Amino acid sequence: MKTTGGQACIELEENVGNNHSCEEAAALLSAEGACDYVLVCRNIEDEQESESHKKQVAFIQQLENKGFQIASCVYGKKTFYGIRTPKDIFFKYKYLLKVSDSCNWIGDLRDSVSEPTRIRVAHFILFNTYLNNGEGLKDLLHEHVFETTFSLHEEEKQKELREKWARWTACFQWQPIDDVRNYLGEKVALYFLWLGWYTTLLIPAAILGMVVFLNGLAFFDNNPVISEVCDANTMMCPLCDKKCPVWQLSETCTYAKVTHLFDNEGTVFFAMFMAVWATVFLEFWKRHRAEYVCKWKVFNWCEEEEELILDVVDNPSCQPQPYLHSYLRSTLVLILVTLMLVLIIGLAQALVVFRVVATVVLSESESAFLSEHASTTAVMLGAVLHYLTITIMTKVNRKVALYLCNLEKTRSFAATETSFTVKMFTFQFFTLFSSLIYVAFFLGRINGRPGNYVRIAGKWRLEECHPSGCITDLFIQMAIIMVLKQTLNNVIEFISPWLARWYKMRRKTGASAGCRPCEEGGPAPRNWIRNYDLKDVDAFSLFNEFLEMVLQFSFTTIFVAAFPLAPLLALLNNIIEIRLDAIKMVSLERRLVPIKTNNIGVWYNVLKAVGVLAVIANGLVIGITSDFIPRLVYKYRYGPCANGTATHLHCMTGYINNTLSTVSVSDENIQKDFLPSQLNYKGLNVTHCSYKDYRNSEDYTYTSQYWLILAVRFGFVILFEHIAVIFKFIAAWFVPDVPLKVVNARLEDKLQRLKQELRNMEHKMMEE
To answer: Is the pLDDT of residue 463 over 70?
Structure first.
């Protein structure tokens, strides 16, 4: 390639551009409409006869053979090819849609197609065009024969979407979903439709979560359990070895107050509500989706038919890609997935070890504050480390999931995307929740007792639950991870496109010194340069947004019993997330390939699975992690109100003392766990200390109260889950999947289409 007369736009020597000059070709594209796609490659004088250059020319020639119109433009060291799809391809596409089983084309075949359709068809043909050696565009991009490829933003529609939607001042306005669909395609439009619906239904959940929180706050000072902790003189056993001394229960007064905010009677009702809310959300989402896909005439759209139609349009002699299945590959993938999950769970256990060691180190610190709050500080450090682990493992999980998808040899990109989604979500779910599951269901229950502590490597004691309960530890973990994840993700999402564009502009400034933009080519080439400077997107760009939101949905529902404010945080985040994603897709990133669909794909099944897990997890959190059941048993079986005579006392009076067991430090088994210096409190030698458990003081066996509480715990979990499941089934049955107006509209459409076909047949018969 070469430039003449200092012009930036040039004509390719090898008949590229349908024998038009660059100016003529660009003018032709501008007259008929913007080009559908742009290819970019390097343009270096010394490489004119290189293998890469020959492949560039050969690929362009293949596109010309298919009737594509092509204009070229040189800018600095880059060559841009503007590509426009011939009209006859769209006529064939529309005709095959009309005669297909799903009948996706409604209207006259002479009608023009929308730009999203043009881009989608052009994208399919480009990536299914091959050189004589079998290499396709994907291979050429991997070999750097072409640097990149992208579709163009339309300046007028881009400006319109910015005014209506993609701006911060529109945070509390309804989204123009139809305009989004007409610009970015059905798949992106359904993502924003789902995200908007999810955000809207978070409002009642966030309000109720606030009510539960404020309910705990309102009875803060009148709660007898809190008063008992704050006024207690009970000496508690050391929480760690060596430097941890005995301590008074009253020292954890603040901790007990915080626990009550998230572990009160309202939590049970809220957890039940959120379990049903997840089902209601999905049921109403199906109705909401049906209204739009019916309006967009894609209700009966079939992904497989669309793929076959595009194959036939591109190559009439094509053969269908067969479905394949290999038990050997499936077994290998299953084994590798299991090994990956074992690794992820192992990392969660490493976090447990970190917290144990951190507690010991902090308790031995010279700082009085750190030594006194060693356990809480270790939990917070563990949560921060957990977040860093999540960030690193996200990249590892992505690479492993892609590798496993390649092993499976999936039939199409849609099948690959589905397989990748399931694997990536599974890996991310275990990465995020393994540590939380340990805190919720194992922390403080496998640590042993004084004289018989469970130790890691025979050295470090496992963590203990606080006398006020383990639910606060779970709350701290969730709050830190959720706040950090949402805040940092949003900051990175917004800043990274700006940094990418700044970097490109900086490189371009140095590379194109003394070279003018492609103004001779008219407005189209200038738009090519502007779009090239935007951040690149790939096939999984929208997947990343879905994954982020579905994981947030998991946080909001699965352990909501421990964190009633989670829906509120999710609501605030989503209000920002909608506009952030809109601004990114419209202004900061290259245009996504508009993909046709009528649902959110496998994500719906993932959300259903999360809804089931929410019922199980919340039942277990309330039944096992929370102190709701022990308080209930004490109130009606062991407390002052159990026999109905002590009316002058609060029914929970004496509850804390009832949950503690006492040991004598003179016992030889006890003495081996504690040093004499640990059993000294302000100069006084302690003869007895207490710990949270239900054990006899003589032989340390479990009391009958322990077994009663355990039985009630499991009974409650079973009852909770059955009630929640019944409500879920009732909600699913009560709410029809498709609104009646949609059913009637589809019926009317079918009738009108049949009448039109009958008139066409009669007209042809009369002509004959």
So the answer is: yes
